[in-house]
Every structure is written in structure tokens, then in C-alpha cells.
Amino acid sequence: MTTMDGRGPARPLLEVEDLVQTYRVPGGTVQAVSGVSFRVRRGETLGLVGESGCGKSSVAKALVRLPAPRAGRVRFDGLELTSMSFARLRRVLPRMQIIFQDPVSALNPRRRIRDIVAEGLAIHGVDRAGIAERVDETLRQVGLDPDLVADRRPGEFSGGQCQRIAVARAMALRPELLICDEPVSALDVSVQAQVLNLLERMRAERGLAMLFISHDLAVVRNISDQIAVMYLGKIVEIGDADEVYRHPAHPYTRALIESVPVPDPTAPLGGDALRGELPSPLEPPRGCRFRTRCPLARPSCADAEPPLTPIGPNRSVACHYPLVT
Amino acid sequence: MSSVMQPAPPTGSAAETPPTASRAARRGAKLPLWVGIGWIAGLALVALLADVLPIAGYDEVVGAPMQGPQLTGEPLGTDAIGRSVLSRIVYGARASMAVGLTAAVLGLVVGGFLGLLAGYFRGVVEATIDILAEVVQAFPPLLFLIALAAALRPSLASLTLALAALIIPSFARMTKGSVVAQSSREFVLAARAMGASHWRIMFREILPNALMSIVAFSVVVMALLIVIEGSLSFLGFGMPMPYPSWGGMVAEAKDRIASHPSLTFIPAFFLFMTVYALNTVGDHLRRRFDVEQSQL
Amino acid sequence: MNPTTTTDPRPGPEQAAGPDRPPPLLHVDDLRCHLPTRRGLLRAVDGVTLTLERGQTLGIAGESGSGKSMLVRTIMGIAPRAARVSGEVRFDGVDLRRLPAREARRYLGRHIAMVFQDPSSALNPVVRIERHLTEGPRHHLGLSRAAAREKAVQLLEQVGIPEPRKRLRQYPHQLSGGMRQRVTIAMALACDPALLIADESTTALDVTVQKQILDLLQRIQRDRDMAVIMVSHDLGVLAGRTDRIAVMYGGQVVEEAPTPTLFAHHRHRYTAALLEAIPDTARPRHSALHTIPGAPPDPVALGPGCRFAPRCAAALPRCSTDVPHLEPAGDDGHRYACFAPTGLRERP
User: Are the C-beta atoms of residues C97 and C36 closer than 8 Å to each other?
Assistant: First the structure.
């Protein structure tokens, strides 16, 4: 599924190395992302999972420099984005688009759908005739009839339809990488499936690479080739999606999987809930960051921070006592 | 300190009465929207067409002084030196509308622009604009105006400029707040992620969303300006002498309020109605905007 | 009360008591909530009949716009002012809708409490946690300040908030989202209500925190033998945590059954579609998910016939002309309203 169609060992479309992002807050400086590395190949989806506050959205925004990361490298198709001038970055941005969580807030309520979808094209100087044609084509691709929707405004549409429009706005630029920041979390289960199917179809038809961010492993699992699990600004486990889901190596990954509600009243409710809450990123725990909530923590976990260590082909985990070795 | 936070329980139920009462009062005291719009539109039309209407000039003596309203002849009567009250009201409308509207528009454009810059760029730009705004607002408004009017020699233009300067800070603040709120919304992020320029984001994405509340505010400000202009004229710092203004007319007639009340009440009535109508329209705009916002 | 709409002849001690059997804790009869809008009459709730026994948990499922939130709001008597409400809401035998507003208010917060979706907007940002928790008991139960404070500490302990005495002095923004939702639950529990209504109260939370909150609600419900109405768009959330589930569509209940029956032997096509839309982690990677085509009906322009018919794959000609009514199926109080039910064969 992730073969390079005879293109050989092509370099990954997106390479992120040691990404660090910090924000200033009233109590000091928070390191929202502390040294995250991953790669996404063309046509492949990486699912990035974690609780809110783990830094996954900061990763997404740092990739497109909203704002630029504090340290680390982001290479897109071999181009180093972090050190690039804004003028050059503007020419690269159309190739990587981002979709946000709240479809209603993501669309300007005062503009017509036609203008919203055309926004990127207009910014990048496509001529009027070209814009009109591309807007209609893209709206049709996301399953909306341009004649019915193009002249209306976002307020007239449901959340699911708004998310389709947001997908259309991103896809109008024909990007190679789509960054989806919790694109279905605000939607009903029944509408979630529609949007996920749409994204999946876009990926299959356009050979799109995706970075798919969500707090819900059940959602990520189906559309991802790889899954990376984040906790307090770090990746604690990364690997093949099926492997990670079937045999989680990190206790946190297992807790996330057990938290997914099972649509079966006869199934056991699955283990104890994860204790407590995400510690303050202002002062992350010493040693392993997860130890304060880990059901398997031992005293030695406080001594040293476990590095992300390979435990198999394309599989790494950051735990002193992994569940799978 | 927790005692401060804890009013006795019955206040919960008692507190429900005042809001209802005041809401009813507000609703009862409201003009129908069409009356408000009609009044302002009619007044604007009359003020615009004052020169071609079949009325006397504002400083023309048309008859005996201090005639009351008449069925034939002068419908609103004449003033202390025999000028037509009707013409003076009409030309006064011109002054009030011109000063109020121009100053409000000036304040909106300049203050709105500064607020947009401050709210979008924040940082140094915001700090600089804030300091300027505070300097202006630190003066008591009436003193500020009287000082300016004295320095500039009263004229339509100087009065308008002075009033505009007075309200620019309010517009800047108000716009800034609205822009800051809009800037954090995701469609602004989306535009930035597509490589949109600052100007494009400010004028295409943010301003249209902030505009409605600013316009509603400017209508209410216009009412306020007309009152201020009236007060200035009443105090003798308004429009230069023979030119009529409603505030000035009230001032001239105030000594004769007992013997000739109509001379005071007619301009006062027009002043009151205009302010009332503007407030009604402004309120309506603001409420419509609130509803739109809450539906987002 | 219409005898054909009474539900759930549940075998139990109450029934054994014969004619002296106490009334159910909550009985909603033909409840309607219509909102006049510029486009016409919006039928948010359109004839709902439900019964909830003491100590039971009822799930209400449906997509946004199905009327589930408006239903619980109408039950609570907090529908919008302009709404036209009809029908009965009998709480412990008393029709709340016939009570004078002053008396009906006494039930709210005292006997019936509600937990909302968004904990941040349910708490007043300038009021300390202590006052949030003490106001209700002091008002409804007439506790002294000191007694109310002690109760608040106990409540916070019960909902699993560490260092309760310190928390009392804090403001809502000093707590995380999960903690805030725990505080709103503590607020709802403050007067020992007999019925707790949780309206999408975990939807805005992470899955991990959602599980914590759901576990907490379940524990409290068992400890206190309290009745709970849980509203959610996610049948997965309701699966292991409710006794019965009512599925709503277009302002009406289209199917209601004990939870195991609903999952194993649902009859309504909409229930089937909702269940299929839940992401199934066992299916192969990149395979398409089941979706429900189309969108929920416009509550201002409801056609004749079954409201789900335009989106239903199994719709018969009569589905778009005749209205299906809730019919009993089996002896466990299972009811559904469908002319072309699914899964008839599997039913023993």
C-alpha cells in the first residue's frame, strides 16, 4: 500500500527532525513540543494521536510556521521550511494545506462559498476563469453541487457540510500534503464517517500524503498507515498502524486504546480509566513523563527519561518496560 | 474573603426581578424601527434640500418677533428678532447632521483603521496607539472641545475635526477588541496557512466580520455627537453666530421659557427625537449583529 | 394517561406491589416543543412519550438536530421562551408543566439536575468553585454556610478531585477541562437529585477523560441509586452504561429498547445506520466506512410519512405517505416505528 510505484527509495515528502516549539504563558515558558521526529511518504497517512495539551496541534501549526518552530528541521520535498524566507515559503505553502477542527470557525462567515474555496487560488494569482473552473470542479469532488452552494454563506450549512467546504478550500490548491488537525472531532459520529471517507478518497485519487491528528484512536486507526502517539510534547510510540493498535508497546498507547468506547453492551468496559490528568507542561515529571499516570510505573522510571528505541522494523517505543519487545 | 463572594441565597430569586423589569422598560421605551429610520431619512433630506425648499433664509427677518406657531404664515412661529423658526430648525438640522455624520465617519475611518492595525499586529503598534488614545481620553471631553474650539476659531470644519478627534480613541479601542477576537478564529489561521498577505487578511477576512459592530457603534456615537454639538452651541462654543444650531436656539430662548415656551421646546424636541431615532437604529443594528454572532 | 403508550412492564418489586405501585420517577407523555421561526414552525420535539424508573439509566441517541437536547431542555422546563410546549412531564407523579413557575423551579437543581456539554460555559468565570457548589444546597436545603462548605468538600471528593479544600478557593479557569466537568457534576449532585440529566456531557472531552467521567457517572449512579438520562450522538458511549436507549430522529423517538436488545435486535433502519457509522477498529485499513446518505430532515419543512424515509435504503412506497407509529415488539418494552424493519429473522 505504501510502495513508491517504482520511484525507488524516494525521499519522504515530509521529514520532521527534533522539532521544538515553545510558547510564553503567564507562568513561564511552556515547551509544547520537545524534540519530535517523523516522516511521511507520498500517498501515506501518519496518524498523530494524544490527549489535548500533548502538543499535537502545535506540531501541525509549526509545520506551516504558524508560528515557526523554536528549533528543529522541517523538510518538505527536500526544501528546508524553517529557515526559508517568507516570500519563498508562500510559494511552498500551496503544496501543503491544513484543515482545522472547528469547521464553522474555519470558514469566514461573511464570504460566499465560492470566494472561500477560491481564496488560495486568488492569493497565488490564478486568473479568474481558471479560478471559477477549479472551484466548481473541487466542490463537485467533495460532493457538493456548485450551482446550489457556491453563492451561499457558511451559516447556511451544517457542520459536516462546512468541513467538506474546508476540504474543498484546501484541495483547490492541489496540495501534496494535507495536514488534518482533529478534522472530525466536532462532528457527529454519522457525519464523521462521511468526512473520513471523503479524505480517504482524496488520498487514494490524488496520491495525497496526510498527517492526521486526533485524540481518538478509533478514528485514526482506519485511515492511517503509521501511528505516532504523543504524550507531553514527545512521541512515545510510533509504528505500523495495525501493529500499534493490536500490540501496543507503550502503556499509554494501551490506555488510549482501552478508552475508546466499544459499541457493544456485552463487552467489558475495559480496564481502569487512566488515572489523573496530563501534568502541567510547565514542569513535566522527571524521568519518564508518563510515570505519574502509568499503571506499571516502577521507582526507577523517575531516574532517566526513556529514549525512543526501535523494537522492530519501523517500530519504536519510549518506555523502560515496554509491553512488547 | 469568601464572605464577599457569598450573598445570601434569597438574592438568587430576588435578582430575577430587576432584569425582567428593565428589559420591559427598555422594550416599552423603544421607537419602532421604521419611525427611527423615517425620522433620520426625512431630516437628512430636508437638511440637504434646505436651500431649495420654499422657506425663508435662516437669518432673514420674516415678521414680528416672538409669534407663536400659526396656521397661516409661519407654522412654527418666529424668534426673538422675527426670524422663521422653521427655517432655523431646517438649517439647524443641516448643521447637526453635517457635524454628527462627518465627525462619526471621520472617527470611524481613522479610529477603525488604527484599531485594525493595533488588533492585528499587537505588540509595539498596539502599545503606541494605546498611548495616543489614552492621552486624548485623559482630557475631560468638554474642556478638550472648548479648548480646541477656542484655539481654532469656531467654524463648521473646526468643530467637526474637534469632535472627530474626541471619538477616534473610542473607535480605535472598540475596533481593536473586535479584531483581536476575530484574529484568533481559525479562518484567519487558514488564510495565513495559504500564504495570504497581511493586508489581505486584515481587509478580506477580519474587517468584514468586525465591521457590523463598528457601524452599529458609529450610529450611537452620532447621536452622542449631536448632543455634544448641541451642548457646545448652548454654551456658546458651537456654530459661529448667525448660523442656527438646535443647541444655540435653545440657549437663545432659555430666558423666555416662561413666556414663550415653544421657542425652547421646538428645537429641544427635534434634538431629542433625532438622538432617540439614532439610538433606536444603532440598537437595532447591534442586536442584529449579536444574533448573527450567536448563530455562528 | 394513554394506556397504549405506557411502557416497560418491567418485572420488579414495584410491579409486585400491585395497584399501590408508585408512579414512575419520570413519565413524559406526548411532549411537543415547537419554535416559531422566520421560516415557519420548527418542530424540535414532536410527540415524545418516555418512561424512566427510579435508579435506571436511559440513553437518548441521535444526530445533531434530532431534537434530543431540546427534549431534555423541555423536560427541565428551560426551553426557549418563545417555544410552544404541550404534553405532560410527570416527575414522581406531579405534572411539572402544570405547576406555577415558582414551584416548578424548586424541582430544578433540587430533584432534577443537569450537566451540560461545555463545562467552561456552565461555570461562571468570576465565581469561585466554593460558591458554585454551596449556592444550591444553601438555597434549596437551607444549609448554613459552614455545613454547605463541608458538603462541597465531600462532593469534590466524590467526583475525584484531589485537594478539595484548596479547589474551593479557586476559579474555574484554574482547572482543566476534565476537572471543570467534574465540578459541574458535583454541582448537579449538590442537592442529592433523584434524576440527573447529562446532555452530551463528555462530547467535548478527550477519550481518556471521557472514560473517566463516564466511569464516575456510573459509580455515582450506583452508589446513590439515582436515575440518569444520558444524551449522546455516539451509541458507543451509551452501550455499556445505560439500561435502556431511545433513538431520536426528526424530533421523535423512532425506537426504544433495553440496551442489549437495541444493539442485538434493533429493528429501525435508522438505528441500524447509526450503529454502522461507528468506526469499527476491526475492519481493514483504508476501507470505506458506512455512512448515512443525505442530511437530517429540516425541522421546519417536515414531509408526510416517515421522517427517515428520504435517507432510508429500504424505504417502501408507503413510507413517504404514511406515518409509522411506535409499535411494541417483544415483551421487554421494545418499541419501534418502521414499516420496513430490519433483522426480523434474527429475533427469537
Answer: no
